[in-house]
Amino acid sequence: MATSIFDDKSKKPDDKAISEALGKTKKLWDELKGHVLDEYAPASEEWKYYNKKSGWILTLRQPKCVALYMVPKNDGFSAGVTLSKKAVEVALASSLPEWVKEIIRAAPQYPEGRPVGLDVRKKQDLASVKKLVAMRMGK
Asked: Where are the domains of the chain?
């Protein structure tokens, strides 16, 4: 099964498909997407299809880096960032919830950073994601 619920390369997700898949969490999707696009301007959105396993993923990016990956799932979505070594240190010393810090500690370290993904199903989940994006972007 693909990470994203949209695993057909020939069918790029549109707003209607996203709404149907996400259900009540579509408003959280829109809020997070709007926040990143506004806060880290100039930023743009781009749908990427990496492979059958990952499916379609929305990337929110500045010209030189991806600020956030958004992965649609049934009745929710995952939001992911890649944290540099410095951003990991900032995150672990921050007021993020301990469960988020555990996810950061457990994430593998790659040359480009540590990928951290959080499931978003309720409004409270957005605060942690927004903080991680700020740390990713050096704010």
From this structure: 15-136
